[in-house]
Amino acid sequence: MSAVLPYSIAAAALVALGLFGLVVQAAVLRKILAFNLLGGGVFLLFGVVARRGAGAGATADPVPQAIVITGLVVAFAATALAVVLALRMHQITGAATIAEAAEDGFPDK
Amino acid sequence: MGGLVDWLLAALVLGAAAWTLAAPTGFAAVVGFVGFGLLVTLAWVRLGAVDVALTEAAIGAGATGVILLMAVVRLRGGAEEVSAATPGRAVMVAAGLLAGGVGLALALAVLALPDPAPGLAAAAMARRGELGLGNPVAAVLMGYRGLDTLLESVVLVFAVLAVWSMAPDRRWGGIPGPRFPRQEAGPLALLARLLLPIGLVIGIHVAWVGAEAPGGKFQGGTILAAMWVLAWVAGLVQPPAIASQAVRLALVAGPLAFLLAGFAGMALGEGFLAWPPGLAKPMILLVEAAMTLSVAAALALLVAGPPERAA
Amino acid sequence: MSGTTPGGWLLVLALALPVGGMLLAFALGGRTAERIALGVLGLGTVLAGMIAAEVYAAGAPLAYRLGGWAPPLGLRLQADGLAAAMLLTAALVLLAVALFGRAAQATPPGVQEARAPFTFWTFLLALAASLAAAFLGGDLFNLFVALEMLTFAALSLACLDGRPSQFRSELRYLFFALIGSVLYLLGTALLYGAHGTLDIALLAERAGADLPTLLAAALMTAGLLAKMALFPLHLWLPPAHAGAPPAASALLSGLVVKAAFVLLLRLWIWVLPPVPAGAGAPLLAGLGAAAILVGSLIALRQERLKLLVAYSTVAQIGYLFLMLPLVLAGDPEAAARAWLGGILQAASHAFAKAAMFLSAGLVAGALGHDRVAELGGAGRAMPMAVIAFGLAGLSLMGIPPSGGFTAKWLLLTAALGTGQWWWAAVILGGGLLTGGYVYRVLAGSLTAPPAAAPRPEPPAQGPERVALALALVSVALGLVPLASFGLVQIGRPILGGAP
Amino acid sequence: MTGAQALLVAAIAAPVLLLAACLWDGARRRMPGLLWLAPLPGLAAALLAADTTPLVLDAARLRFTLALDAPSALLLGAAALLWSAAGAYASRYMGRGPGAERFALWWLITLSGSLGVFVAGDLASFYLAFAAVSLAAFGLIVQDGTPRARRAGEVTLLLAVMGEICLLLAFALLAEAVQGPSLAIADAVAALPGSPARGLAVGLLVAGFGLKAGLVPLHVWLPLAHPAAPMPASAVLSGAIVKAGIIGLLRFLPADGALSDWGGILAGIGLLTAFWGVGCGIVQANPKTVLAYSTVSQMGVTVAALGMGMAMAAPGTGMAVAFYATHHVLAKGALFLAVGLAAGSGGWRRWLVLLPALILALGFGGLPGTGGALAKAAVKPQLGEGLVGLLAGLSAAGSTLLMLHFMRRLIALEAGGTADRPARGLLLPWLGLAAAALLLPWALYGAAGLGDPWEALGKDPVAALWPVLLGAALAAGLARQDRWLGAVPEGDLLLLTGKARRLGAACGAVAVRAEALLRAWPIAGLALMALLLALFGVMLAAAA
């Protein structure tokens, strides 16, 4: 059981790092990376939970494992979408951040 | 000395994460992230979750790394804008304190989790036989929590259409992504030609063994998608036009098969998403095959992006 | 509780129908997508009505055990009064928006398939599927998947116009929604680690006021608040909702935020023990009060009609949170009132706000702009749309005999009954400010058009009728005798007890 | 359902059905000509259905109750009569066309509410009717579309909504005070004196209803709105609509002495209002504004009588106050119609307007023989004694002065040519209503249980006459003092709100800036994390 302690701390630290990065990093790409670090922390926490629940012949509780597999796919889809949005924004406006800008207006139709 | 290995690995994971945040260039950061993904894969192995480790390697590090690398090449410049939008020291300190507070609370909460841990390992192991599956994770994904898997495969379809819908109107129906010149020679072409058949075999194998051993449709599908991306980047294949009926069908085959199987369970078995006794294994394999196809198609098309050229 | 009840199969159909419809619409494409959407949403409304009737008749929630597996190992679908009421609301709004979209989102002639219409119709079905999953789900991780479905569907609908300036605001929306999702998922990890299940009914029995549970609740609540855009986490909502085409805005403002709210109620009323919930509720209601006041004040000062309506959503979301401290105050009579008031507010706001966005879209489309100061002549050119806006506004203000009035009356008396008069003051002050911004729009559109202005093109009658019908439903909710709303109380846990 | 109960339903249903009929183009086009019909079922209800058994629908939960007590019946009848006459007048006055059709729509909504407040028997339907009459009046006021009308409409609407808020809160407190789910007004009134929030509830009721009735300092909308509306709308605004406030006070405040403390306060406010209206009115140039201030003053007297009745627990106060208000409904409504006629007629026909107007006008001061004198006699038990009696007499003198000022301003309106004859469609409603204002009180005095009208007038002729003479003398003395005209703007105290408006604008600007800051990405992120930790901390502290 002691093996989960390092990963517990790593998971908590990853969540903190990811949140910090998402809030303070300006570039969209860095935000996407930070989001993935945050997600990695959450999944690792599930891993800790799964490991703690090992038993009955399973090296880790299969239910959290399945949840992580589902979650990883969803996170990938979200990342892909964010990347596409960032690329389109960059392509059209040349912008690399999502800071509030003056042109965030609502042009006449 | 398992403890030391685990501490070291955890430290490396955090180091890679810190590098990803602090790296001087976007490219370096993405490379750091791929490294992070591989280290986390190792962590999953250490945590006894080999299925997750495979998925993490295939999707978390692999596929995510590929789209981020492709993005970093196209997202150039903007350094001034970034530095202008970077918050001042006060916000930095506040964010650090608050994020640290959240991390601290989380660590305390994890330490306060009950011992022995409540969980469903025993139940999941005990009843997997009813599905004819040896791998308990597969039993969770296809059996106990089948609805999650069904909805998640639907999410992939959502995501593909969402990505497509970001295209300009006039490109609708066209071919996704940039065109890569055909590499007749060179390392990439060689790699593609060599790896492609091997990768295909491995991908299908991983998907196939998922019922008994670690593996499954997501991992297998990802490997298949990766092979296709390789061939695409090497200029050997072209993405299909998004208007193509075959592409659409490939994308929905998995979830649709799952849904139909669900109704079959309603007619023949205990209810929606129940696998009829006796038929469970063959039906699961059939649905998994369709799902592997759909997952591969979805992941590949997510990497390719919105349509950029006329068909 | 975990077994399948008679009529449980309705829940399967309510979820499978839009999922299957979405997959088929995506595969077959083009105009077929529109046809499938109209058919599926029509059927979905019938199904939602049947579910509500079944729950009401049985006086108990419907449940369906998926795959024959019992929780905690398996998943279940369940429809209590809350789910049935929200499902019916969603079905009606979706159907109305689909009818509205027949004109606005038609595939242009001569094209087999076009981006915006195809995306609209497919994601309309996707949204229906996501909402059904969010309302009917009985497992917290299953609900996470539903939330993610919702995020993708909502984001694509918000992007429908494909305007260059939109990508920035949609990215803000996506990032904030993703943070919300991840925080929610983090909470489920802790809950599973602490209690070995994510089934809501089982968690209600097992969860105590321990450290992991409380942190999980805080994480999940924060995540859901980010998705609901509760002040001060509303940064993404005004541009996203105002920048979308009217049909999409109607769905985003009317329905999408409500799904996260239902999850929040599941967490706070079912899972969390009453003592910590009672302590946290005033904090949320305080933010709700701030949302009402600040959102309304900002709406009052908007120069663009659609932004005004979007800020009105920021404000109206606040009302939903006022029910929490009232339901959790420990007075059963007041709790029942506040519960009904809150859900009625969610439903009547869904109808009213959808009507507002649709009619605002019609006005903007006909005038060629949506500047509040230059709406003159709109009342003459499209009286039905302006009347729809006005009726919806009356409901938001809480003028009788509207659904908004009944909702606010119930919250008001619950607030006074539990001695929390300050929420009453907020409810009333918010009504006054709401009146202010609704008046600005109505007064503007009822003045004569400027002499030089070109005569606005009157919109087609069909869409105008849809907007008016939605507004009328929002008003008519206030005419339904309160006794018939017993539906929403079905399956609500009485404080401290099991559901 | 008995026939009488059916009449109660019909009183509300008639305008609502006509309103619904407006969905059809043909009916809508004809509607301006049909307005006079809409209040007739209400009139019939007043005559035949007074004190009938209340009609209760859906007794289970949300009770929908219709009831008509005697004071309400009196006011309902008068209001219905005025609405009918003004409706007939409006048919000619507004002409035809989209403008008149729109006017008819607002008219019908307002009418349904105006009659509804007299017959609604439960809190919910009363509130609904009150909201209809308060808010829909906006449409009548802004009919002309001039900036002045718009401003008047906006002030009215703002104050009306604030009044609604006061009432909503008060009703919520009343509903809380009632044991059980009943929403009947009778139960609420019975529970009010024992309610823990008695003071707050009564204060809110007085504010909400007083606003409608024009009590100082909440009267500011009235002198703006009444003159701005078209003539027939002014007539119903001043005659019938303000009575929604009076009937509210009458029906919700128990007159049996349970609230004697509040009676004194009401009497004080009422008397202040009575003199305030006179003071502001005599410096107005526009005859309609003078009439509006006279309404303020008269409502002050009405409320003073009610307050004294509550303080003294005088039996019959409800009837007496209703009688006083009934006279005002008819007479004030008639006078507004007269203003519209005076300008359009010349020669001898002008006297068809001016002479009855003079009699009605002096009636407000209590000129013996008029309906006004009977009205004064009716509230004598409440306002006849001691200091209050003296003040009431002085206010009657003020009324005489004010009404003579009104007559002077009316005559000053440009007369038409000698050949100009007033349209029959305008003249007949006016003459009918004027006759009703003069004669009906004689018939109703006995019917209302107040005694023999002849006896009442003969009792103390000196006390009845001195205010008239004093007022006339003052009027003669001030006859040429026109330099004060316009010294007080319409809506007097409204001047003081400029600072409040600027403060509100400043608050709005601050909110906009603060909100823009909160929308910055890093700040929102910080807020999210802070909220998370705060929530966790609060819950942890509570659990520990």
UniProtKB/TrEMBL annotation, chain A:
Q: Where in the cell is it found?
A: Cell membrane
Any one annotated GO CC term:
plasma membrane
- Work out whether the entry's keyword set contains Transmembrane helix: yes
Q: Where are the transmembrane segments?
A: 6-28, 35-54, 66-87
Which Pfam families would you find in this protein's record? Oxidored_q2
**Keyword Transmembrane assigned:** yes
Topology of the protein relative to the lipid bilayer: Multi-pass membrane protein
Q: Which domain of life is it from?
A: Bacteria
List the keywords (alphabetical). Answer: Cell membrane, Membrane, Transmembrane, Transmembrane helix
Q: Which family does it belong to?
A: Belongs to the CPA3 antiporters (TC 2.A.63) subunit C family.
Q: What is this protein called?
A: Na+/H+ antiporter subunit C
Q: Which organism is it from?
A: Roseicella aquatilis
UniProtKB/TrEMBL annotation, chain C:
Q: Where is the NADH:quinone oxidoreductase/Mrp antiporter transmembrane domain?
A: 138-433
Just give the chief location class: membrane
Source species taxonomy? Bacteria, Pseudomonadati, Pseudomonadota, Alphaproteobacteria, Acetobacterales
Q: Does the keyword ATP-binding apply?
A: no
| Provenance organism | Roseicella aquatilis
This protein is called: NADH-quinone oxidoreductase subunit J
Spell out the GO cellular component terms annotated for this protein, sorted alphabetically and separated by semicolons: plasma membrane
Give a GO molecular function annotation for the protein.
Answer: NADH dehydrogenase (ubiquinone) activity
Transmembrane parts of this sequence = 6-29, 36-62, 82-104, 116-137, 143-161, 173-194, 214-237, 249-269, 281-300, 307-330, 350-369, 381-400, 420-439, 466-490
Matching entries from Pfam families are given as:
Proton_antipo_M (PF00361)
Which domain of life does this protein belong to? Bacteria
UniProtKB/TrEMBL annotation, chain D:
Q: Note the superkingdom of the native organism.
A: Bacteria
The subcellular localization recorded is: Endomembrane system; Membrane
> What keywords were assigned to this record?
Membrane, Transmembrane, Transmembrane helix, Ubiquinone
The NADH:quinone oxidoreductase/Mrp antiporter transmembrane domain is annotated at: 120-343
Source organism:
Roseicella aquatilis
Gene Ontology CC terms, in alphabetical order: endomembrane system; membrane
Q: Topology in the membrane?
A: Multi-pass membrane protein
**InterPro entries linked to this entry:** CPA3_Na-H_Antiporter_A (IPR050616), ND/Mrp_TM (IPR001750)
Major location category of this protein? membrane
Protein name as catalogued: NADH/ubiquinone/plastoquinone (Complex I)
Which positions, given as ranges, span the membrane?
Answer: 6-26, 33-50, 70-91, 103-120, 126-143, 155-175, 200-222, 234-253, 265-283, 290-314, 320-344, 351-375, 387-406, 427-450, 462-479, 523-543
